[in-house]
Amino acid sequence: MITLALDTSHKYLAIALIDKDNKLIDGISNYCPKKQSEYILVEIDNLCKKNNIKPFDISAIVITNGPGSYTGVRIAMTVAKVICSLRNIPLYTISSIELLSSNDCLVLMDARGNRAYYGKFINGELIDDIKVDYLENIQNIRDNLPIIGDGSLFNEQDNYPNLCQKFIEHRNKWHLEENVHTVVPVYLKDADSYMVKK
Q: Is the model's pTM score more than 0.90?
C-alpha cells in the first residue's frame, strides 16, 4: 500500500512515496521551473528503484490540481491519469494552495501580469475561496499574515516548505476523484477577464 504524490504546479518538481501509515518513504523536491516534464518520469523511476518499489506496489496517486502554471498543472495530472486508468487505482487531488498552507498564513503563488493566486488560512483552515487578484489588492487584505510561497512578489523572501512532508501533513484534505477521466485542472484564470483593477 504505497501512495505516489506528485506536484508540478509551479516552480518545483515534488515526488513523494508515502506508506500505508502515512509516513514518508522517500521523496524529492527539486527547483526546476518549466522543466518538470523532462524529469518527472525519470525521477519517479529513480525513487522507486532506490527504495526497491515496483510499479505495481503503488496503490494510489495524489496530485495537486491547481491553480498554478497552465502547463505545469497538466504534467503531473496527465501522468497520474494514465497510471490510474491503466492500473485502476484511486486518484486523489489537493489544491496547490492548500498543499503549501500552514496554521496562520497567506499562501501566494505568482499568476503573472502583476497578479497572484492566493488563499488565507487561519488555524489551518481556508478563509473564503482560493482566488486570483492583483498584488495591490491582495496586499490590502493580507492582515499581516506571514507569506508562504512567492514572498518576492511583496519584496520578501520566497518561502517554500518541504512539499513531500506537506502531502502527509494535509492528508485530510485529499479529495478522492470518482472518475479519473473527468479530472481537470483548476486554473482560476477564467476570472481574469472579469477583474477590474482597483
A: yes
